Amino acid sequence: MSAEALLDNQKASQVFFVLAQKRAGLSQIAKTCKLKKTEAGKILDRMFKSGILTKKRNSFDIDWERFVPIFLRKAMNVYAAAMPWKFIPRFVEQGEENFIEAACAKAERELARVKVKLGANDLFQDLIRSYFEILATEAWAPDDYLEDLRVADAIDEFEYALLKLLPAIRRKKRDSKQAKDLFRLLNDWYKQVVGYDTPSGSALRAAFQQQELL
In total, how many domains does the chain have? Predict the structure, then answer.
């Protein structure tokens, strides 16, 4: 089972959220997640082999360094769709016959570069770790909240949450190079997502304009 499939699996997600709180062994995980030991053992083994977990002696922990690239593969849904539009005008101006294909290829390379930079930024890794640690220990969440929440859902919501946070982040003073680099990367992500419009979004915008509400 792939890492992405595991993060979309309810039982594997329960295991993840338990380990986001602290390192734990098989017995403790099985008890907390209300799983049989054999089933919990299989899930842990799959998560370990997919790069999500690290194992030391008889206990498991999340391998945050390897998890971040997995996180980024799923977190950039809108960003990935928006990125080609950033390059289309350039290739049109250059007279490129297959400008859409060229823009998509350029966007794929650019997105790979961004993912590498984010993955190598220790501050971003700490941010993602804090995000899941806090989510796993939300005191005000319903009792069954984490039982139903998939890790994949939490990753998908990251982009949406970013839209609300970036305006506030802009006002924050950044002293370290890593903080400045991280802001530039996240700010570009934010701008691409905000500027992107789906056909439905374009239709709604046109409807607002037609009714003179925009």
Answer: 2
